[in-house]
Amino acid sequence: MRCPFCQALDTKVIDSRLHAEGAQIRRRRVCPDCDQRFSTYETAELVMPRVVKSNGQRENFDEDKLRRGLIRALEKRPVSTVQIDACVQRIKRLLQNESDKEIESRRVGEHVMRELKALDQVAYVRFASVYRSFSDVTEFIGEIEKLSDE
Prior knowledge:
Blueprint: E1 12-19, E2 24-30, E3 37-43, E4 50-52, E5 58-59, H1 63-73, H2 81-97, E6 102-104, H3 105-119, H4 121-131, H5 137-149
Parallel strand pairs: 4-6
Antiparallel strand pairs: 1-2, 2-3, 4-5
Helix pairs in contact: 1-2, 1-4, 2-3, 3-4, 4-5
């Protein structure tokens, strides 16, 4: 691995640990030329299904887009970055386990809503209001009543 500081072509691994619930390996490295230390993360590259949007347009699955949506819904909520990362990993695992090479964006949204419902109910209602295009306050109330009944 090339050193990000001096661009030397070879660095040495000094420590390896599991990270992100075992989905990644974190490696501590040192450059023998400049003695700088840095971390790298190794992740298995798995093929994700393509996402078919409601208008029929197809796009590659975007993990960053998923994470941004979760972060937006969880804004100012007591949920850690570690919990968000674990949520993203669970959703990715669900999508990878589906046999289809393409998945409707609606199904991705349903996975997100299930995760948010378990993680933080306020974030769940926020996400649901945008995802389901709530048009008035009665739809908010209906969704909150559903949560109260469970």
